[in-house]
Design goal:
Blueprint lengths: L1 H24 L28 H10 L4 H11 L7 H9 L4 H8 L35 E9 L2 E9 L4 E6 L4 E11 L2 E6 L4 E8 L2 E8 L2 E9 L20 H12 L4 E2 L6 E3 L3 E4 L4 E5 L5 E6 L2 E4 L1 H6 L7 E4 L4 E10 L2 E7 L8 E8 L8 H11 E3 L46 H8 L4 E5 L2 E6 L2 E6 L2 E5 L1
Parallel strand pairs: 13-18
Antiparallel strand pairs: 1-2, 1-8, 2-3, 3-4, 4-5, 5-6, 6-7, 7-8, 9-10, 11-16, 11-19, 12-15, 12-18, 13-14, 16-17, 17-18, 20-21, 21-22, 22-23
Length: 473
């Protein structure tokens, strides 16, 4: 029965299939037969773009240069936690996204709101009394001229200031030229250094004039310079004066004048008007200067003779106008002058052989000191000795004396006895000038002719060459 049923089903299925085929194969009546029509092509399916994932959006914002704060605000606004896989996290990190942003993507509520920007308070302007800028330093380039005055004498000084703080200094009358200098400016104050002589000049500049102080070897001197102008004439040294007693400086001058009488010279220092003491030097190192230049200044201190600025300048000369006198050499004293800070003696020599050398020697003391005359006289005696005219002696005080009775008249029967003849005058060729004066007395006149010096005595003329008697007429 079972087998019959399965067979019946198979037959039914086979019949139905045949019928379907027959129905398909046989067209309906009245229709033409032919090939079936071609099938229409299928229409293309539309492309559906997936929206960017949150991971791609954040990477895009980071690559666009958005700040971390802006990206966090964007994530907080959407407030959609992302279920990130490790692959997503690596992709975000490689795309330039920080770990802070990745953490906010997974939990937008975990990020606190960024702090609000606090405006920076602007400083309140305060009025400040700012001093005006210092005026620029004046340009001091050029030639500055003046006279440096010391102990009544002076010397012309010229500074040639060039660019870059360098220049040269000249002392024309000493023939010391081209000494290097360095200078600098601070406002209107100029500082000029002369290293070769250890000198410094500090002055205030006012247009075309400098006024200040010149310092060298511990000594200071006022000095005024003029830009481009000619040097002033040196002041004429004051002549020897007759000192007066009554004050402590006058007492010193009187004491020295008594021991060393002053010799008066003519204005051009060629002839002696009044002969005074001949001095012999007892120390080495007295610097005197020849010609018409100003006198050299020397100082005696601690047993030695040293030179000040003028002497330092003159040591640079090589033309024979400077001479250093040594122990045993002789000269005249022409001036004695006691001041607040020392005693100044001026000397002049005989022609050696043609030039007379002259200069100043200072015996210093403190400005608030009044040394006794005996002390200063002892210091002078350490340096010079009077070997010519004896020092003048003060007149002794008058004493009460018994009147001297006049001598009895001579016997009228006897003729008066003539006085004995004077001893013969000892004068010979080869003697020194001092010996000639000692033998003949003071000359009535002295003349200098070239290298010769002629002494005119009464009824006698003596010619000297090099300080020695050569002709007696």
């Amino acid at each position: 029965m079972k087998n019959r049923t399965l067979l019946a089903i198979a037959l039914e299925i086979g019949f139905a299939g045949v019928l379907a085929v027959a129905q398909t194969a046989a067209p309906p009546a009245g229709q033409p037969t032919g090939p079936p029509p071609a099938a229409k092509p299928a229409a293309p399916k539309p492309v559906v773009r997936k929206p960017p994932t949150q991971v791609d959006s954040v990477i895009q914002l980071a690559k666009a240069g958005m700040s971390e704060t802006f990206i966090i605000k964007y994530l907080q606004k959407n407030n959609k936690p992302a279920d990130l896989t490790p692959t997503d996290m690596v992709k975000l990190k490689e795309g330039g996204v920080s770990e802070t942003v990745i953490g906010v993507m997974m939990d937008p509520a975990s990020a606190s709101a960024p702090p609000a920007e606090v405006p920076v308070p602007q400083p309140i302007p305060v009025a400040v009394n700012t001093p005006p800028p210092a005026p620029p330093s004046p340009d001091v380039q050029g030639d500055w001229r003046g006279i440096l005055t010391t102990t009544g004498t002076g010397v012309p000084i010229v500074f040639h200031l060039g660019p870059g703080g360098a220049g040269t200094a000249d002392s024309p009358k000493q023939k010391a030229l081209g000494m290097p200098v360095q200078y600098s400016m601070s406002g209107s104050q100029a500082t000029i250094n002369v290293p070769s002589v250890g000198a410094t000049y500090i002055a205030s500049v006012n247009a075309s004039q400098m006024s200040g102080t010149f310092s060298q070897n511990g000594l200071t001197f006022p000095l005024t310079l003029t830009l481009g102008g000619p040097a002033e004439e040196a002041p004429t040294p004051k002549p020897a004066r007759v000192v007066a007693s009554g004050d402590w400086k006058g007492a010193i001058e009187d004491k020295i004048q008594q021991a060393y009488p002053v010799t008066q010279f003519t204005g051009d220092k060629t002839d002696i008007v009044t002969t005074g003491a001949v001095l012999m030097l007892k120390k080495n190192g007295l610097v005197l200067y020849a010609g018409d230049a100003l006198a050299t200044a020397n100082t005696y201190r601690a047993g030695k003779i040293t030179q000040n600025l003028l002497g330092a300048f003159q040591r640079n000369t090589t033309d024979g106008t400077v001479r250093t006198f040594v122990k045993g050499e002789k000269f005249w004293i022409t001036q004695i002058d006691a001041k607040d800070d020392g005693l100044f003696l001026q000397f002049i020599s005989d022609p050696l052989p043609d030039n007379r050398y002259h200069g100043t020697l200072k015996f210093p003391w403190g400005k608030n000191t009044r040394p006794p005359a005996e002390e200063i006289s002892a210091l002078v005696a350490e340096v010079v000795q009077n070997v010519g005219t004896p020092p003048a002696q003060p007149e002794p005080a008058q004493k009460q004396m018994t009147p001297i009775q006049p001598p009895p008249p001579p016997d009228p029967a006897l003729a008066p006895i003539a006085p004995p003849p004077p001893p013969p005058v000892t004068l010979a060729v080869g003697q020194t000038r001092e010996q000639a004066i000692a033998a003949m007395g003071q000359p009535e006149k002295i003349a200098n002719v070239g290298t010769k010096q002629i002494l005119y005595f009464k009824n006698l003329k003596v010619t000297l060459v090099g300080g020695k008697v050569t002709v007696i007429e």
